[in-house]
From TrEMBL, chain A:
The keyword Membrane applies. The chain crosses the membrane at residues 30-47, 59-80, 100-120, 126-147, 266-292. The keyword Transmembrane applies. This is Ferric reductase like transmembrane component. It comes from the Bacteria. Keywords: Membrane, Transmembrane, Transmembrane helix.
Automatic annotation (TrEMBL), chain B:
Signal peptide: none annotated. It comes from the Bacteria. This is Cyclic nucleotide-binding protein. Keywords: 4Fe-4S, Electron transport, Iron, Iron-sulfur, Metal-binding, Transport.
Length: 293, 841
């Protein structure tokens, strides 16, 4: 390659630029580690003979339980790690990678810990909550792996603020264009103007469908009125129609943007609260085991 | 009418005002002549409420007017009051149009004025200087006769004026102080640079003002403005907030109307106000016409001055920003000093004496400041041509240090853009573990970093007990622009060393004589070809400044082959294997190349088999790349296209001049903005990056964040020299920033913002468990306002990415990205075929 006299920063290792996402981090290091843990756990479960049968209370069960609890506590610490901008050579990507794979290995560890003895009690509640956290996590990595490219394509170099500005700019033109309209027609346009682009139910946000969209309604009504008139090129309604069309397009982009962002975030609203519920249930589980056995 | 005074002072900025105040205190007859209707126009024009800073803090103020850091308004009020109290005579609204001597011709004193024309030719005029007293012709028709003249007109110059009928009407203005002051007007903005665009956007920003704003452009493009501004303008036009008229020029101005020449012929439009922002002409021409010579033809050059600020026209003194001292404190001290001198005080030590004394204090020998300056000037060859005043100024920006034999001066791969001069002793350059090249007293080293802005190429130690001067990049650039022999010496040495380093250890300076004698330094514009595929030619090019890309036409398309940073060479293939050029090499940014004559180089290679061997190896690896791309072209043509397009996109976005840039892989970015939050939390609560804004291509996003340019545009015009390149190659702004905003305007990538440090946030745990404070990331304006320390005014300073220098672990944005989307790369690492290979798999 090119001959250079100046070298590279020793700070940056060569090849770092051939970067990996968190799932492939360091050649799937944590996937390998987690797989190994699972294999060891299953093998030892088979090999260790616990009488009368495997359960949480045996020495083997205690060992698996301790590993599980420590793992859960460590997994919870990701929330702290993400926000504490301390110095040092750590990378949140590596943490997330380990979090995902070690978190998944909990399925094996915790299940083996139970010895498949489940029932309607606080112990099983903790187990169920854990599975809920893990399932939401699985949903999380699915969206993390599939949606970013769509988010990027949809925004086409626009920022969220710019999208909003664009909607507002069309609104201003709509406002001016609606001045000569009779009252009832102006009212429809006004409804579109008063519409909050961020409004709508959570369901709308996640599905991207806004059946009660005032802009869509205004345009439908407008088309109804103008449907049987010929295009003259200087009817204010035609101009409004064109503006509403543009607004719809802009709104659609904004809504796709919000939808994708919501999908990328919504699962954390299950993952994190369920984590805290899990910690509470886990405490109850441990306390009850030791004090009320 | 003609008045006679002892001292005429032109310009009432801090320099002129301080001079006038001293003259008034000494009871000297004087007149302070000011073009505008107020004192100190430069400061008057600062943004309202700007916090003016008093740097350098260790410099004592010596003036009859007070000055300390504070709001623009309070400083101006104070000066107005003090000027009145002390009986300063001011003539407002008088522009000095000409200054000529009234005495006899001064024998042998002829002023040569070189006028550069647009077509590149020059015109030389000669003027015989006349002895003082001087006649100053004022714009109001008055003449003033003065024994001594103090020029303190700053560097603002005059705005370029409109030259159409009606241009002198009162509604044509050349400045816009407060865009909010105009309502319901039809306003035309003339001029499509950044100033014009910013004004137009400002006037149209608030719709409630009801202005109809039109910006006129004589062509169809906005070539002289920043991309971000142009984008904002286009967006504003698209949403109907303002209109852009292209290919339109002003033909006539009448009260209430403007007539334009446009594509559709002449049109007359309603117009209440015209804001003309067509740049300004620097004051140099006027200054030269007064008989004042500049140190060189360079754009950055300042007037030639004696140690007491006297110019080449005897009796005319130049001080302040015009003399090369843009800080207010310097200006004021000089005003005082120069009047004392004119009044006969010859013992006054300059106010910067203690600063210089401190610089020399640590040296082993004891000498006075003047002795040290003379010692350095006499011992370092490139400083020879400096005047004592220039020497003082030079030392203010430089450092001098003593080293013991064997001490480390800098290490290979250290970043650093300073130049070293050996004032005593010797430096040893460790070219290889077994070879040390000595650099003797009088010579220089470290110049490659200065010129190419890249890391140090070798470790240097002191070869004997030595004294070295370390010249900062700014001081070195000033030196080169003000002293042509110094520039030639530095260029020759740096070219020689660059070749020696580039072509390996076997060569000696003597071998290079022929090549050097035929070498030529050429400036290449961005996009210009150095080598064109298919051409004949055997010259070799060494990239001295900037960077290049190599492209080849494959199947009718330009395919990107490689990126060449400064310090690389190209062109050896045609020389070694003959035949036409096999690829095109073009500049990504304005660059400089050393063109080596092919025949001379061929003879050198013939004489030095090691060099030939070396060149062959480089050629072979390049041929490999070409072959690789060719082979991939059929099987992965889309991948190759993508690679070329991506490379082009990155180069278009300034990666060609970057040394380190933040990229975001939008296949991975989940938009959590943790990078921004981490940035804020690692830097006083202010984020230096805007993740979402910026360009994207093929899911590769270049966020708005500093690229740490090889030749940072932001450094160009920083009055306190607050911008430096730090130990990891980062470009950073230090605490001496005075918040003038020049760097923000100069950065083409819009990555600098002006802000004040927000109040301290409660800790992370109190936020997590008790909900205290705003949480991670940059606090909202509201929170900042509510929690601001009452009564304490925090100045707005320039902030930008510093690559988290000094923070262990490196850039916070990268560390804090949960998915690995954020990466920092050097372009030469990123734009390699290795990527292509991988993407193909
Ligand atoms: C936005 C901004 C912020 C800054 N902030 C700071 C800061 O915080 N601290 C700091 O130390 N420095 C700061 N500076 C730098 C500083 O303001 C200037 O370098 C300084 O004002 C220069 O002083 P001066 O007296 O040499 O010239 P100027 O202040 O430029 O004054 C020149 C005067 O001469 C008048 N004039 C020009 N031509 C003629 C003529 N032909 N006839 C008559 N009069 C004429 C002009 O109207 C003007 O009033 C800042 C600069 C800018 C642009
Ligand atoms: C019991 C097990 C787990 C616990 C207690 C747990 C807990 C947490 C916590 C506290 C966070 C921090 C969220 C935040 O502050 O933003 C988090 C984030 C996350 N978790 Fe888990 N988690 C578990 C299992 C898993 C599993 C199995 C997966 C994947 C399959 C997973 C994937 C993730 C991801 C992708 C993040 C987001 C990282 C980010 O965007 O910053 N988690 N988890
Ligand atoms: S602030 Fe702008 S000009 Fe300065 S180094 Fe960064 S990108 Fe380059
Ligand atoms: S860093 Fe920027 S704002 Fe600060 S003084 Fe320098 S040029 Fe002005």
């Amino acid at each position: 390659m090119a001959t250079q006299l100046s070298g590279k920063a020793p700070r940056r290792a060569r090849g770092e630029v051939l970067h990996d996402g968190f799932l492939r981090h360091a050649g799937f290091r944590w996937l390998k580690a987690a797989t190994l843990i699972c294999i060891l756990s299953i093998a030892s479960y088979m090999l260790v003979d616990v009488t009368p049968r495997h359960n949480g209370g045996s020495w083997y069960g205690y060992t698996m339980g301790t590993i599980g609890v420590l793992l859960i506590l460590w997994l919870t610490l990701l929330g702290l790690r993400k926000r504490a901008m301390t110095r040092g050579r750590w990378s949140l990507k590596a943490w997330t990678s380990a979090h995902v794979y070690l978190g998944l290995s909990l399925i094996v560890i915790a299940t083996l810990h139970t010895g498949f003895q489940l029932g309607w009690n606080v112990h099983t509640l903790a187990y169920a909550l854990m599975m809920l956290v893990i399932l939401s996590g699985l949903f999380g990595i699915t969206v993390y792996a599939t949606l970013p490219a769509a988010l990027s394509n949809n925004r086409a170099e626009m920022t969220q603020v710019q999208m909003l500005d664009a909607v507002r700019a069309i609104d201003r033109q709509l406002h001016d264009a609606a001045q000569p309209l009779p009252h009832d027609k102006a009212a429809l346009v006004r409804q579109s103007l008063e519409q909050d682009p961020f409004g709508g139910t959570l369901l709308s946000r996640l599905s991207g469908r806004y059946p009660r969209c005032a802009t869509a309604k205004a345009q439908a009504a407008l088309r109804h009125w103008t449907g049987d008139q010929p295009d003259t090129g200087n009817d204010p309604l035609e101009r409004i129609d064109a503006l509403l069309e543009r607004k719809q397009a802009m709104l659609a982009r904004l809504r796709r943007h919000l939808r994708l962002k919501a999908l990328l975030e919504i699962w954390l609203y299950v993952h994190v609260p369920a984590t805290f519920a899990l910690l509470a249930a886990l405490t109850a589980h441990i306390v009850s085991v030791f004090f009320y056995w | 009418m003609t008045d006679r005074v002892r001292i005429a002072i032109v310009g009432s900025g801090p320099a002129g005002l301080s001079a006038a105040a001293r003259a008034a205190q000494l009871g000297l007859s004087h007149l302070l002549i000011e073009k505008t209707d107020h004192l100190s126009d430069t400061i008057f024009k600062y943004q309202k409420g700007k916090h003016v800073m008093a740097t350098p803090s260790q410099l004592v103020l010596r003036s009859d007017c007070d000055f300390e850091a504070g709001k623009r308004e309070s400083i101006l009020d104070r000066w107005n009051a003090q000027a009145a109290e002390q009986g300063v005579n001011v003539a407002y609204r008088c522009e000095v149009k000409a200054i000529t001597g009234t005495g006899d011709p001064i024998p042998g004193s002829i002023q040569k004025i070189v006028e550069r024309k647009r077509d590149g030719t020059t015109d030389t005029k000669e003027i015989q200087r006349l002895a003082p007293p001087y006649r100053l012709s004022l714009s109001d028709g008055r003449d003033i006769i003065a024994d001594a003249v103090i020029m303190a007109i700053g560097t603002q110059g005059n705005p370029n004026l409109m030259r159409v009928p009606g241009a002198d009407l009162p509604h044509v203005q050349y400045q816009l102080d407060d865009p909010a002051a105009y309502n319901d007007e039809h306003i035309f903005v003339v001029g499509t640079g950044d100033a014009g665009i910013e004004n137009a956007l400002g006037l149209a920003a608030d719709e409630a003002q009801g202005n109809a704003v039109t910006i006129l452009n004589r062509s169809t493009e906005f070539a002289s403005a920043k991309a971000a501004n142009v984008k904002a303008l286009m967006a504003a036009a698209e949403t109907g907030r303002l209109s852009i008229m292209t290919e339109a020029t002003t033909a006539k101005i009448e009260p209430g109307f403007i007539t334009l020449d446009s594509r559709d012929g002449e049109v007359k439009l309603k117009c209440d106000r015209i804001i003309a922002r067509m740049g300004s002409a620097p004051p140099r021409a006027f200054v030269e016409s007064c008989g004042i010579e500049f140190t060189s033809g360079d754009r950055l050059a300042f007037p030639k001055l004696s140690p007491v600020f006297e110019s080449t026209a005897p009796g005319i003194f130049v001080i302040g920003a015009l003399a090369g001292y843009p800080l207010i404190k310097h200006c004021m001290n000089q005003g005082y000093d120069v009047v004392e001198y004119i009044n006969g005080n010859r013992d006054l030590k300059p106010a910067d004496e203690p600063i210089l004394a401190a610089k020399f204090a640590a040296l082993p020998e004891k000498k006075s400041v003047d002795q040290w300056l003379e010692f350095l000037r006499g011992n370092v060859s490139i400083l020879e041509g400096l005047s004592p005043l220039q020497m003082r100024e030079f030392m203010l920006d430089s450092e001098v240090r003593a080293y013991r034999k064997g001490d480390l001066i800098f290490e290979k791969y250290d970043p650093g853009s300073s130049l070293f001069g050996v004032a005593q002793g010797q430096a040893l350059v460790e070219v290889s573990p077994t070879l040390n090249v000595p650099i003797d007293q009088g010579s220089i080293f470290g110049e490659v970093g200065l010129i190419s802005g890249r890391r140090r190429g070798a470790t240097v130690r002191a070869g004997a007990d030595s004294i070295m001067v370390e010249v900062s990049r700014t001081a070195a650039l000033k030196l080169m622009s003000s002293n042509p022999p110094a520039k030639r010496a530095i260029t020759r040495i740096s070219t020689e060393r660059q070749l020696l380093q580039l072509f390996g250890a076997g060569l000696t300076p003597a071998d290079l004589t022929e090549v050097l004698d035929t070498a030529e330094i050429k400036t290449v514009k961005a996009g210009e070809h150095v080598i064109t595929e298919g051409d004949t030619g055997t010259d070799i090019y060494v990239i001295r400044v900037g960077s290049m890309i190599v492209e080849k036409k494959i199947g009718g398309k330009n395919v990107f082959l490689s990126y060449l940073p400064a310090g690389s060479y190209v062109g050896e293939m045609a020389l070694i294997s003959g035949g036409p050029r096999t690829a095109t090499v073009k500049a990504t940014v304005k660059s400089e190349v050393i063109k080596l004559n092919g025949d001379a180089f061929a003879r050198l290679m013939a004489a030095k088999p090691a060099l030939l061997e070396r060149a062959r190896r480089d050629m072979a690896s390049r041929q490999d790349v070409n072959a690789f791309i060719e082979s991939r072209k059929d099987s992965f043509s889309t991948v190759v296209d993508m690679y070329s397009e991506t490379a082009k996109f990155l180069v278009d976005n300034g990666i060609g001049e970057a040394t380190d840039v933040l990229l975001i892989d939008e296949h991975l970015c989940v938009g959590c903005d943790n990078c921004e939050k981490a940035c804020a939390d690692s830097h006083d609560g202010l984020s230096r990056l805007d993740r979402e804004a910026g360009r994207t291509y093929a899911h590769l996003h270049v966020p708005t964040s500093c690229r740490h340019c090889e030749h940072p545009h932001c450094m160009a015009d920083c009055p306190p020299n607050a911008i430096h390149r730090g130990p990891d190659g980062e470009v950073f702004i230090d605490d001496t920033c005075i918040g003038c905003g020049n760097c923000q305007r100069n950065c083409p990538y819009g990555v600098i913002r002006m802000d004040s440090v927000p109040p301290k946030k409660p800790g992370l745990l109190s936020w997590m468990f008790f909900g205290q404070g705003p949480g991670p990331g940059e606090p909202s304006k509201k929170w900042r306002y509510k929690n601001a320390e009452p009564g304490v005014e925090k100045p707005k300073k320039a902030i930008k990415c510093d690559m988290c220098s000094g923070i262990e672990g490196g850039p916070a944005c990268v560390r804090a990205c949960p998915t690995g989307a954020a990466i920092r790369v050097a372009p030469e690492d990123f734009l390699t075929v290795a990527r292509l290979d991988r993407e193909a798999n």
